Amino acid sequence: MSTYDVAVIGSGPGGYVAAIRCAQLGMKTAIIEKYSTLGGTCLNVGCIPSKALLDSSHHYEHATKHFADHGIEIPGGVKINLEKMIARKQAVVDQTTGGVDFLMKKNKIDVFEGVGSFKDATHINVTKADGKVDTIEAKNTIIATGSKPSTLPFIKLDKKRVITSTEALKLKEVPKHMVIIGGGVIGLELGQVYRRLGAEVSVVEFMDRIIPGMDKSLSRELQKVMKKQGVKFYTSHKVTALKTTAKTVTITADDKKGNPVEFKGDYCLVSVGRRPYTDGLNAEAAGVKLNDRGQVEVNDHLQTSAANIYAIGDVIKGTMLAHKAEEEGVFVAETLAGQKPHIDYNLIPGVVYTWPEVAAVGKTEEELKEAGIKYKSGQFPFRALGRARASADLDGFVKILADETTDEVLGVHMIGARCADLIAEAVTAMEFRASAEDISRMSHAHPTFTEAIKEAALAATENRALHV
């Protein structure tokens, strides 16, 4: 029987990063993955493939709608080769997961393929696809088994017409009408992919706005922009029934007045969130407790009810974000090494990779009002930037919320071109507890999109943005 200092169950961003950091710190490490490729949901059927399709569809939209404005003419027009687009997406996935394989070898981490199941708190059975079982011993274990798409009780996912994000990443045709249940990040990103490729897209959302976890101003702006792009939104609609035929899907929902509304399409993407995945883990055999939401219970050190077992990522409380899982993986590895790591969950940014991109960190206006914190707000539109006009990316704004008394930045919310990258400046500033004035006094290169952050900081400091 092989013995390890640490065994990691799950090879997503949290799991493989935890394994690498443990190995760097001198621990003999094993990682267990049920699938034949490493990388988990994010690399295989989540973050990476969806961004590949978003990028490809963005190129297509530019070629068909915007190239002419730049003086670029394509004789004969532009055609979609969906099969090739999906193949490119898969190539990106293969390259990325192959990179994780390389990192495991480089760091001398043993990889076990199969379902990891606790025999007891220090022994893990690994059941392979052929039914054979290996057992390893681990002084410490990190649970990083991630999450799976959720559904509604009355919806059966046939994975043909009624699909999850996994199937949406490998369709063999562009839908005529895709009805999306759920106006969150995943539904909006994939909805935009297929809208660009020519599908009619309808988003049915239970809440009164899309991306409900983000600042309300971002929700309003993104819905306004995506409406211009042709996406139809039905907020405050409660889905009550779904029926399928060989080629159609019919969704029934009650609007905010309780009146039934019917949506007919050829595909329905169910995007109502994700659930923690602990199937087959046999957590109780190790003394690991789950809460009533199916999450692994952990303390402030990410330690479970079994002292030598930790859990990270989507399988525990908090936002389901790859970079949150990575931070937690490093946190646990360094804790096991006797260090004193720290995570500030308030400073983990959230991003929606639509175009325009949406990004935020810190507190929303709604949260500050609820907490009774007095704040000031500064906002600057991208359309006032020379760089935005040069690239014709005029939609969106940057909003900075700062403490009314101390001027410390409490939240930054942005929607516009490259916001997924721009938000890192805000995270850095807030990590060092910068004031809005601090940001406003930093030189930002011209012409760039980052100037919007400086201008928003000026607006928050003394209401003196320079270019509006």
Task: Provide a compact summary of the structure.
The protein is of the alpha/beta class. The protein has helices at residues 13-24, 40-45, 47-65, 82-106, 165-168, 185-196, 216-228, 322-336, 365-371, 386-391, 419-431, 436-440, 451-462, and strands at 2-9, 29-33, 110-113, 115-120, 123-127, 133-143, 147-149, 162-163, 177-181, 200-204, 232-234, 238-244, 249-254, 260-265, 267-270, 274-276, 309-311, 350-352, 357-362, 375-381, 397-403, 409-416. Strand 10 (200-204), helix 7 (216-228) and strand 11 form a beta-alpha-beta unit.
Number of helices: 13
3D shape: globular
Terminal Cα separation, in Å?
Answer: 69 Å
Helix percentage range: 25-40%
Q: State the total count of DSSP E strands.
A: 22
User: Strand pairing plus helix content: what structural class?
Assistant: alpha/beta
- Overall radius of gyration: 24 Å
Largest sheet: 7 strands, mixed
Strand content: 25-35%
Mean pLDDT: 97
Low-confidence stretches: none
EC number: 1.8.1.4
GO cellular component, one term: cytoplasm
GO molecular function: dihydrolipoyl dehydrogenase (NADH) activity; flavin adenine dinucleotide binding
Protein name: Dihydrolipoyl dehydrogenase
